[in-house]
Amino acid sequence: MAIQGGRVRVLREAEPRAGGAYVLYLVQQANRARFNPALEFAVEEANHLRLPVVACFGLLDGANGFPEANARHYAFLLQGLADVKAGLEARGIAFVMRRASPAEIAIDLGRKAALVVLDRGYLAIQKRWYAEIAEGVDTRVVQVEGDVVVPVETASGKHEYGARTLRPKLHKVWDAYIEPLRARRVAVRADGLALGRSIDVSDPEAVLAGMSLDRSVRPVRRFRGGETEARARLADYLAGPFADYGTDRNRPEAGAASHMSPYLHFGQISPVEIALAVRAAKAGTAEDKRAYLEELIVRRELAMNHVFYTRGYDAYAHAVPEWARRALAEHAGDPRPRTYTEAELAEGRTHDPYWNAAQAEMRVTGYMHNHLRMYWGKKILEWSPSPEEGFARTLRLNNRYFLDGRDANSFTNVAWVYGLHDRPWARRPIFGTVRYQSENSLRKIDAKAYLRAVEALCAAEEDRPG
Q1: To bridge 31 with a disulfide, which of 193, 196, 267, 451 should be the other Cys (CB 3.0-4.6 Å)?
Q2: Residue 146 maps to which CATH number?
Q3: 149: domain range?
Q4: Burial degree of 53 (CB within 10 A; 0-12, 13-18, 19+)
Q5: Do 364 and 462 contact (CB within 8 A), yes or no?
Q6: CB 325 within 8 A of CB 376
Q7: Using N-to-C axis directions, what is the helix angle for 271-280 and 227-239, rounded to 10°?
Q8: Is residue 30 a contact partner of residue 38, using CB atoms and an 8 Å limit?
Q9: Average model confidence (pLDDT) for the chain?
Q10: What region does 435 belong to: left with phi over 0, alpha with psi -120 to 50, or beta?
Q11: pTM for this model (two decimals)
């Protein structure tokens, strides 16, 4: 139950501030009050210093909002933060939320902190926040990596070619990181600390109503945010549908998916907690468990590796490998049997009813099965006037509608459509030697059953006031 040393990095080397009023923990990537290594590290340090713990969150809003985030994303985030607030306060940890960037609130509250503790994400914007904090405070700053199983730099010191090269590196060390993490007892409660203004997120809908943001993409009710909801969903899943994961995971109509991706994206559940639960599950075979851990750890952490080691991971010229860009450029002038505008794609107005259904599921409910995400992306490439425009469209649609958009997995999966983590295939029009995916791939699923399932899901979402 120890916090592994490989998760801990010192961003600013200094002694803890003498006379500090508390240990400050910035809630940023790991939005949960349990199974959170950064939080437990902060509690350990605070107990050693005989100080309380203060957790803070910077809520980006208006013109300074998180890039591409809208009402759908913020509703889910705020639901989760209401859970965090309740969980922290029950443990005796104060929670402060303000309209500010994560760096701004951490630097402000860090002025009275003996020590500042950060969690870790891998996007460029997150790296900038962490660098600002390390520069902007004058006490010790420690970062604890808790939203992957194996810390990214422990797993690999370079950009990996694909899952086949990262997999053995992860397998070699992951058992040391798939360990329980207990909640530490707080020695000094933060009750009554004077911490200044704070937004009360206990009513997330009220906070959302007061924000200035894009409301054209509505919140969903298919998924509710929060670590309590995440754990309940995981328990229900492992007691039932998980038993068929090994055979049915690539069939979207079969209901074998766990739907953990939105919760992982927002840090509302730990991947280590999921891995432990999967290993301990009474349902499911060894193959079910192996296949699930492959997706949860190898595939997900390959995405973290790509984003961490790729400057410009959201740009076609940097994210797509040179061989694939060359192959696509050689066929950029090939006639497209069909092309669609981005608005037509967003509204699901193509000739392909199955693609339209996948787009409707994403647009209305914020989710699409991974098997269909690949088909969906390959068709956008085929139906766009150029590969560069196809890449940009795919990423914009992905980030706008998916609850788990704007994620390392999103950036990596979009680049995969264009050849990342893949190899050359047989040459064909438009795609060159980049992997093609045809309508024949839908023969592996019950496509008619999928259409019916999406129709029911969308009807449930749209049958509501507002």
Answers
A1: 267
A2: 3.40.50.620
A3: 5-155+187-209
A4: buried
A5: yes
A6: no
A7: 20
A8: yes
A9: 96
A10: beta
A11: 0.96
**β-bridge pairing 140-144 and 53-58:** unpaired
- Specify whether 9 is located in the same domain as 124: yes
**Position 331 in a domain:** yes
User: Which one has a higher pLDDT value, 104 or 65?
Assistant: 104
Angle at which helices 271-280 and 286-293 pack, to 10 degrees?
A: 170
| Distance of alpha carbon 149 from alpha carbon 419, whole angstroms | 26
Q: Looking at residue 465, what is its pLDDT?
A: 57
Cα–Cα distance, 379 to 435 (Å, whole number): 12
91 backbone φψ class: left, alpha, beta (φ>0; ψ -120 to 50): alpha
pLDDT at 296 over 70: yes
How high is the pLDDT of residue 464? 63
Tally of structural domains, the chain: 2
Say how far apart CA 157 and CA 143 lie, in whole Å: 18
CA distance 161 to 101: 34
Residue whose token pair is 């295939």: 425
The verdict on residue 340 lying in a domain is yes
Predicted confidence band of residue 186 (pLDDT cuts 50, 70, 90): very high
Taking only the tens place, the pLDDT of each residue in 39-49 is: 999 999 999 99
Residue 23's SS3 state is strand
Q: Retrieve residue 153's tokens.
A: 């730099």
Measured between alpha carbons, how far is residue 169 from residues 91, 109, 162, 269 in Å? 37, 39, 12, 24
In order, the DSSP letters of 88-146 are HHHTT-EEEEESS-HHHHHHHHHTTEEEEEE----SHHHHHHHHHHHHH-SSEEEEE--
Give the model's pLDDT for residue 1.
63
Write a three-state SS string for 413-457.
HHHHHCCCCCCCCCCECCCECCCCCCHHHHHHCCHHHHHHHHHHH
- What's the burial of 188, exposed, middle or buried (CB within 10 Å: 0-12/13-18/19+)? middle
Output the six-digit token pair for 68: 């591409």
Strands 113-118 and 94-98: unpaired
Q: Which alpha helices (DSSP H) does 342-386 contain, by range?
A: 342-346, 353-365, 370-383
Structure tokens at 21: 């009023």
Find the CATH number of the domain harbouring 337.
1.10.579.10
